[in-house]
Design brief:
Elements (H helix, E strand, L loop, with lengths): L4 E5 L2 H14 L4 E5 L17 E5 H4 L27 E3 L2 H12 L6 E2 L2 E8 L5 E7 L2 E7 L1 E4 L3 E5 L7 E2 L13 E5 L3 H10 L7 E5 L24 H4 L3 H17 L1 H7 L12 H16 L4 H5 L6 H7 L3 E4 L9 E2 L8 E2 L4 E3 L2 E5 L1 H4 L9 E2 L3 E2 L5 E3 L3 E5 L2 H17 L8 H15 L9 E4 H12 L5 H4 L2 H9 L9 H6 L11 H23 L1
Parallel strand pairs: 1-2, 1-9, 2-5, 9-21, 11-17, 12-13, 12-17, 13-14, 22-23
Antiparallel strand pairs: 3-4, 6-7, 7-8, 10-18, 15-16, 19-20
Helix pairs in contact: 1-12, 6-8, 8-10, 12-14
Length: 530
C-alpha cells in the first residue's frame, strides 16, 4: 500500500516544530518539508546585527526541547558578560537553537532546501498538488494533507510621498548623517528607530506615532528580573478585563515609582544604569506619556517589549512626533496634537503591517481568515496552518508548538474535528472583530498567548489542573512560577523537577492578587448572568 504523504510548506521555527510532531505522530507517513531558502532556520538564522528577542529564552524555547530554566543570569553565569540581555536570545542564538533542535531529532532528512512552492491546489480526489521549483526546474507532487508554515510576512505600507523610503538597514553600509522619520510604534518600528539612532551614525531620528504605546521593559524594576518571569498563571487566571485594568494601573505605578520598587525589591546583581538623571527623567516622562495616550483597547492590551528606544528618547537621540500633517510626509503634528513642525526628512521608514502569503500560493483559495483558531481550515479537512498567529502578548515559536501538537494529532486521528466548526468559527471571528476593531483580522489572527494555548490544550485534554498534576504543592508552584507552554507537556505532569522553576514574584503581590480574586469571581458571574 502506498504511503500517505504530508507536505509542510516553510521551515523556520513553525515548520521545524511541525515537522518534529509530524514525525512523532505519523510514523507511517512520508513527510516532506519545503524551504525556499538555503537555511532551515528561516529569518531567525539571519537576524539584524544587535538583535535581541522580546521574550526570554526560557519562554521561547520548545517544551519538547528544554535547554533553559528560570534562573536569572548574572555576570558570572554566562560566557559573554558584555551581553546586556543574557536571559534573551541575542544575535543568531535562536537560529543556533533551531539548528540544534533539528539535529537532535534528525529533522534535516525530511527538509528540501532551495525548494520554492509556487502553487498549491486541491485535486479531484481531495488531495493536494504542489508545484515545487528547485534549481530553475519545476515539478508537481501529490500529497494527502498540507500544512502551511510560511508565517506572516512584513508588509511595508505604501506612502504617497516623493521622499525616499528606507525599508531595511545594511549592517555593512549603515545609514549615516541623515534626517529620518520612522512611522509606527510597533516592535519593528521602534527597533528600527533604535538601530538608526546609534550615536556614531549621527542621524537625526523622529518617531511618528498616531497613538500611545504601552511599553513593557525586558527587565522589570522588581528584582531586575525579566518581565516574563513575573507573569504567572495566577495573574492569567483573572478575567482579561480585570487583568488588563490591573495591568494598566500597575504599569503607571511602575513608571512613577520605579526607584521605590528597586529599593523594596532589590536585584541580587545590581548594575549601574550609565544614564544621567536628566536622561532618566525624560525616559520616565515619555514612558508615562505614551502609556496614558494608549487609549483604545488594542494599545492598552498590546505590550511593546522593545524598550531600548525609550533610552534613546531620554538621551534626545529620538524625537517623538505625531502623525504626518501633509500628504508628502514633510510636516508632522506634535505628539500632543500641537502645531505641526517642518521635519523635511531625507528618508522615511514606513510602518510595517503583516500578511500571510496563503492567497498567493493557493491562487486566492486559501485565506488565513478561513482557518478556525488560526490552524484548521473550515472546509478542507486536510489543510492546516501553523505559525500565523500574532501574539498581542507572547511569542510565536512556543505558540506554534501548541498548534503543531494539535494539527499533527488531528491528522493522526487523536483529536476529533469539531462538528460545528462553522458555527464556532463564526463566533470566533465576531469576537476578534469586537475585541480588536483597529486590527486587520482578515490578515492576522491576534491572540493573547496563554489564553489561546489554554484553548488548544482543552481541545487536546492537556490543560494543567490540580487533578491532572496530582499534587497541591506542585500545582501552587505552577500557578506562581513563570507561565510557560512547558506546563502543557507530559514531562511536566509526570517527572518535572520543581527546582528548575523559580518563583520571582514577591509574596506581597501574590497576596494582593489573592485578595482581589473574589472580585474576579463576582465579575465573571455577573457577565455570565448578563
Amino acid at each position: 500500500m502506498r504511503k500517505k504523504r504530508l507536505a509542510i510548506i516553510g521551515c523556520g521555527s513553525s515548520g521545524l516544530i511541525c515537522l518534529k510532531y509530524a514525525s512523532d505522530e505519523l510514523p507511517d507517513w512520508e513527510i516532506c518539508c519545503f524551504e525556499k531558502s538555503s537555511d532551515i532556520t528561516g529569518c531567525w538564522g539571519r537576524p539584524p546585527d544587535g538583535f535581541v528577542s522580546t521574550s526570554t529564552r526560557y519562554t521561547t524555547q520548545f517544551a519538547c526541547f528544554q535547554k533553559y530554566d528560570t534562573t536569572v543570569l548574572r555576570s558570572a553565569d554566562h560566557d559573554d558578560s558584555s551581553k546586556q540581555y543574557p536571559d534573551f536570545f541575542n544575535d543568531g542564538e535562536y537560529g543556533r537553537y533551531l539548528s540544534d533542535f533539528a539535529d537532535t531529532f534528525g529533522l534535516r532528512l525530511h527538509i528540501q532546501l532551495n525548494s520554492n512552492v509556487s502553487d498549491v491546489h486541491q485535486t479531484e480526489n481531495g488531495g493536494w498538488q504542489l508545484t515545487v521549483s528547485h534549481k530553475s526546474q519545476n515539478r508537481s507532487e501529490q500529497f494527502s494533507a498540507v500544512v502551511f508554515c510560511t508565517g506572516l510576512v512584513n508588509r511595508i505600507r505604501p506612502l504617497n510621498s516623493t521622499i525616499a523610503t528606507l525599508r531595511t538597514i545594511d549592517s555593512e553600509q549603515p545609514v549615516t548623517d541623515q534626517r529620518i522619520v520612522v512611522i509606527g510604534g510597533g516592535e519593528s518600528g521602534v527597533d528600527m528607530a533604535h538601530r538608526l539612532s546609534v550615536p556614531e551614525f549621527n542621524n537625526e531620528v523622529f518617531l511618528s506615532l498616531r497613538s500611545g504605546v504601552r511599553v513593557s521593559p525586558r527587565y522589570h524594576p522588581i528584582r531586575a528580573v525579566p518581565s516574563d518571569f513575573l507573569r504567572n498563571r495566577l495573574l492569567l487566571s483573572f478575567h482579561r478585563d480585570i487583568r488588563n485594568l490591573l495591568g494598566e494601573r500597575f504599569v503607571r505605578f511602575r513608571i512613577a515609582f520605579r526607584e521605590l520598587l528597586e529599593r523594596l525589591f532589590p536585584s541580587a546583581d545590581p548594575k549601574p544604569t550609565g544614564e544621567s538623571s536628566d536622561a532618566m527623567k525624560r525616559r520616565r516622562y515619555w514612558d508615562m506619556k505614551l502609556t496614558r495616550a494608549a487609549r483604545d483597547q488594542l494599545f492598552n492590551v498590546y505590550h511593546n517589549k522593545s524598550d531600548d528606544f525609550l533610552d534613546d528618547v531620554g538621551s534626545n537621540r529620538i524625537t517623538i512626533v505625531g502623525p504626518a500633517a501633509d500628504s508628502n510626509g514633510r510636516c508632522y503634528h506634535g505628539f500632543d496634537g500641537t502645531e505641526a513642525i517642518d521635519v523635511s526628512p531625507d528618508l522615511i521608514v514606513p510602518s510595517i503591517g503583516y500578511q500571510s502569503g496563503l492567497e498567493t500560493i493557493t491562487g486566492g483559495k486559501a485565506r488565513l481568515v478561513d482557518f478556525f483558531v488560526g490552524c484548521l481550515h473550515i472546509e478542507w479537512h486536510n489543510a492546516f496552518a501553523v505559525g500565523f498567529t500574532r501574539p498581542i502578548i507572547g511569542n510565536i515559536p512556543s505558540t506554534s508548538e501548541m498548534q503543531a501538537r494539535y494539527v499533527c494529532g488531528m491528522i493522526a486521528g487523536k483529536f476529533t474535528r469539531p462538528g460545528d466548526i462553522l458555527e464556532q468559527h463564526a463566533q470566533d471571528r465576531f469576537g476578534l472583530q469586537q475585541r480588536y476593531p483597529h486590527l486587520d483580522t482578515e490578515n492576522v489572527y491576534p491572540i493573547e498567548m496563554f489564553p489561546y494555548c489554554d484553548r488548544l490544550a482543552e481541545m487536546m485534554n492537556c490543560r494543567p489542573s490540580m487533578q491532572r498534576i496530582g499534587s497541591v504543592s506542585r500545582w501552587i508552584r505552577m500557578m506562581l512560577s513563570p507561565a510557560t507552554t512547558i506546563h502543557y507537556s507530559g514531562g511536566y505532569l509526570s517527572d518535572h523537577n520543581d527546582s528548575k522553576e523559580h518563583i520571582h514574584l514577591p509574596w506581597l503581590f501574590t497576596a494582593i492578587m489573592l485578595t482581589l480574586k473574589p472580585i474576579d469571581w463576582v465579575y465573571r458571574v455577573c457577565r455570565h448572568v448578563a
